[in-house]
TrEMBL record:
Coiled coil regions in record: none
Signal peptide: none
Pfam families, per database record: PCMT
Protein name: Protein-L-isoaspartate O-methyltransferase
Family: Belongs to the methyltransferase superfamily. L-isoaspartyl/D-aspartyl protein methyltransferase family.
Length: 227
């Protein structure tokens, strides 16, 4: 693995574009998040403070607050605002948490999560995404997502920004006793929000509502022949 850098988040844009984006951000809070059960004041404030349009390709800036996945390239996508809001609500981050974000992507979720936790490590497997994190938050490592960031373990909170079919032992080992992990979980072709707790060496997941996560190829189960 290669440690990339430690970053802090900022926003930008011209005055007119910034006004439009700010209005879209307020609409995201009021029309997508609050009405769907995302009401934690700290989470709403963090999402309101981060310019989501700064974390998507230039051609997609006008769609930054639409509630759907947006392609980032390299087969990766930015999860919809509501998916991120529900993920953070279930994670219930606090300043006491030592957190790991798996799948840093363009850095949006890292920028939202960083002020909510005590410390944040981020792992991203795509060099093009990890190297483009000048505005982003957390200590970034470029390496396989499934490998996590063992140098910083154990973590009280692990957030996986995407859908997995199985949790590798390498990540389970980095979760502290009674630590929690939140992710999208693929079950029989349906992607749901899930939270896991660690007891001993095992992580048991509770699946919740359906959520629009992009599947992460590194966490797919081996395909079996069927007749």
């Amino acid at each position: 693995m290669t440690v990339v850098a430690e970053h802090t988040a900022t926003g930008g844009g011209d005055a007119t574009g910034g006004d439009v984006a700010a209005a879209a951000r307020r609409a995201m809070i009021d029309s997508q998040l609050r009405v769907s059960g995302v009401n934690d004041p700290a989470i709403l404030a963090a999402m309101a403070a981060v310019a989501r349009e700064d974390f998507v390709p230039a051609a997609l800036r006008a769609s930054a607050y639409v509630d759907r996945k947006l392609p980032l390239g390299a087969g990766r996508a930015l999860s919809p605002p509501l998916t991120h809001g529900l993920l953070l609500t279930e994670a219930a981050p606090t300043s006491a948490d030592k957190a790991l974000l798996v799948g840093g992507g363009s850095g949006y979720l890292a920028a939202v999560l960083a002020p909510l936790v005590g410390s944040l490590d981020v792992v991203e497997s795509e060099d093009a995404l990890a190297q483009g994190t000048a505005r982003n938050a957390g200590r970034w490592t470029c390496g396989p997502l499934a490998a996590g960031a063992p140098a910083g373990a154990p973590y009280s909170l692990i957030v996986i920004d995407g859908a997995i079919e199985a949790l590798p032992e390498s990540l389970a080992a980095q979760l502290a006793e009674d630590g929690r992990i939140v992710t999208g979980l693929v079950e029989r072709g349906v992607t749901r929000l899930a939270i896991g707790r660690k007891s001993g060496t095992q992580v048991a997941f509770l699946t919740l509502a359906e959520a629009d996560f992009a599947p992460l190829a590194e966490f797919a189960l081996p395909r079996r022949w069927s007749f």
